[in-house]
Amino acid sequence: MTEISRLPGPVMDLWEWQFEGACRDADDTLFFHPEGERGSARRRRAEAAKAICATCPVIKECREQSLKVREPYGVWGGLSEDERAAILARPARQVV
């Protein structure tokens, strides 16, 4: 008989939180900058995306997932690309 205990759980169990995201009905271009966008235009777009994230019931799950997979683009869990990069660049805390 085939051993199935090592197989991942149902996909729905892993991603169901996404159905509750405040961004589900938002324009996805708000969360991802167009090529060449810089300066104040980029900051305004990112802040508008973060405002949606701030109302989201699954912001924690989204943020954790984006850091776990090292999501390189867009606003995820209320964090911009640069903010995630800064968090990931921090040295891991040592347990004392």
From TrEMBL:
It is found in: Cytoplasm. Its cofactor is [4Fe-4S] cluster. GO terms for cellular component: cytoplasm. Binds 1 [4Fe-4S] cluster per subunit. Following nitrosylation of the [4Fe-4S] cluster binds 1 [4Fe-8(NO)] cluster per subunit. Keywords: 4Fe-4S, Cytoplasm, Disulfide bond, DNA-binding, Iron, Iron-sulfur, Metal-binding, Transcription, Transcription regulation. Coiled coil: none annotated. Signal peptide: none annotated. GO terms for molecular function: 4 iron, 4 sulfur cluster binding; dinitrosyl-iron complex binding; DNA binding; metal ion binding; protein-disulfide reductase [NAD(P)H] activity. Upon Fe-S cluster removal intramolecular disulfide bonds are formed. The Fe-S cluster can be nitrosylated by nitric oxide (NO). [4Fe-4S] cluster binds at residues 23, 53, 56, 62. GO terms for biological process: cell redox homeostasis; negative regulation of DNA-templated transcription. InterPro entries: 4FE4S_WBL, Whib. Residues 22-86 form the 4Fe-4S Wbl-type domain. Belongs to the WhiB family. Acts as a transcriptional regulator. Probably redox-responsive. The apo- but not holo-form probably binds DNA. HAMAP family: WhiB. This is Transcriptional regulator WhiB. The lineage of its organism: Bacteria, Bacillati, Actinomycetota, Actinomycetes, Micrococcales.
